């Protein structure tokens, strides 16, 4: 069992599940804080990214260390299947904790984002401002959060139910594909709903094409000489 606990694959799966969940939860409460306590939020705005990444990194590192310790020291030695899953590597209790954290972080983050969205919309309407840009930003964030709920929470619920109900390996494969689909859908949403994102992508593409054209022109000029 300790061989699976020290294998990098389950560790990467753990980080890949807990990191986005913790970040979604933290960002949800950050948006809520920005709406509820704007003065305090702007006071910490320059440092909030460093603080957010540091908190998430420390939390995920500590959580992963607990899982590895459980797999190496707490779980009795035994034979497992050739696939080192989180449950087989760190124990069923840690697997339950991992799935609960992954699901709970995204759900709580979505609830905080929804609450911030409603509060911001009400304040804008009460003030009589036409803050279309801010509302579009909230809609983008809300849409990405909903996709996280669909493509991450639903598959993780399915993986929890696998422990108690018959399951299909084919369906499990599609559930893993949902994680990749979520990342692709985020890019598509950014392109559809974020005007600045489209502008920067087009600008980057134009620079790349111009650089390629200049390089080709220089090569042709050099070859003629």
What layout of secondary structure does this protein have?
Layout: H1 2-5, H2 8-36, H3 38-43, H4 45-74, H5 86-90, H6 92-127, H7 132-161, H8 169-193, H9 195-224
Helix pairs in contact: 2-4, 2-6, 6-7, 7-8
Short description:
By secondary structure, this protein is mainly alpha-helical. The chain contains 9 helices and no strands.
Describe the overall structure.
With 225 residues, the protein is mostly helical. The chain has 2 domains: 1-193; 195-224. The protein is 87% helix and 0% strand. The protein is built from 9 helices and no strands. Helix 2 runs antiparallel to helix 4 and helix 6 (92-127) runs antiparallel to helix 7 (132-161). The longest helix has 36 residues, at 92-127. It is globular. The termini are far apart. The relative contact order is 0.10. The mean pLDDT is 77. It comes from Steinernema glaseri. The chain crosses the membrane at residues 50-75, 95-119, 140-161, 173-193. This is G_PROTEIN_RECEP_F1_2 domain-containing protein. Keywords: Membrane, Transmembrane, Transmembrane helix.
Cα end-to-end separation: 68 Å
- Count of DSSP-assigned helices: 9
Radius of gyration: 23 Å
The main sheet comes to: none
Proportion of beta-strand residues: under 5%
What labels would you give this structure?
225 residues, mainly alpha, 87% helix, globular, membrane, 7TM_GPCR_Srsx, 7TM_GPCR_Srsx_nematod, transmembrane
